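Researcher: Here's my situation. A collaborator sent me these components and asked whether they could plausibly form a single complex. I don't have experimental data yet, so a predicted model of the whole assembly would be a useful starting point for our discussion.
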Amino acid sequence: MPAQLIDGKALSEHIRADVGLRAAALTAAGRQPGLAVILVGDDPASAVYVRNKVRACADHGLHSVLEQYPSSLTQDALLARVAALNADPQIHGILVQMPLPRHIDPQAVIGAIAAAKDVDGFSLHSAGQLVAGLPGLRPATPYGCMKLIESTGLAVKGKHAVVIGRSNTVGKPMALLLLQANATVTVCHSGTPDIGLHTRQADIVVAAVGRRNTVTAGMVKPGAIVIDVGINRNEEGKLCGDVDFAAVSEALGEGGWISPVPGGVGPMTITMLLVNTLQAAEEAQ
Ligand code: NAP
């Protein structure tokens, strides 16, 4: 028997319905939540991402502003725009789409975003809040993964979680969120000699690598939860994750849970950005 499916699309729709209600309540109180998205340069993938974010705002009653600049924009000019948006009372969240052109230091720009408006959760301030176990804005992708795990109804407390990948945007915050939820956490990366040794003991596996078949059937324990963050293409050009989905699902068995790609983590990422923007608006004075 295959594992039970963790349906990111359905969960995302459920959370978005709540976002719409909360946004309407704030709007009625004269405080419509607002997100500013800055895109520098003409990277086609980035253009699609920002369009989707702006559309998601419009669909759920959030105000949004998309500022697009040529790749020749100077760092000083970008910092000036961030400063203006920091001071704009209609804007509660600021997102600068990565990657930036090489002459701009991403940390300088992210660090210039007011802590209360850092809805990507990528600033050192937000990262520090997470490390310290303090409240704050959490990076959308790992935040979405936590919601997917919670949606199984199984407690995270006391579980052994293995995160594969240690990027600042996914793997590390994922490990910290699991730790905060009282899991015992192991982090694997490209220097880990035998990842299966760890994942076979895991109750929760989160794969965030960007390499197909990183997690195979022989690497999981029956009954575990597997969350697949990876985005890859197979030989036929079809979207797939880091997990060998069909075989791993069978190995997990009917007591296990698995998120698919597409339809798992992907839909949750923009949803959690909306949630963060709402949270920022609700907390704004
Ligand atoms: P990243 O910055 O490239 O980090 C990848 C991580 O995987 C690194 O920590 C790297 O280890 C580790 N790694 C690489 N090869 C490995 C191997 N053979 N065995 C074990 N670990 C290995 O990528 P990312 O931004 O974290 O994203 C990871 C994946 O998630 C990508 O496919 C990305 O497209 C996807 N993603 C999806 C969403 C979504 O919304 N669905 C959002 C963000 C990212 P080292 O640190 O040792 O190099």
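Model: Some features of this prediction you could bring to your collaborator: The pocket of NAP is lined by residues 141, 164-167, 169-171, 188-192, 195, 208-211, 229-231, 265-266, 269 (CB under 6 Å). The chain has two domains: 30-118, 139-267.
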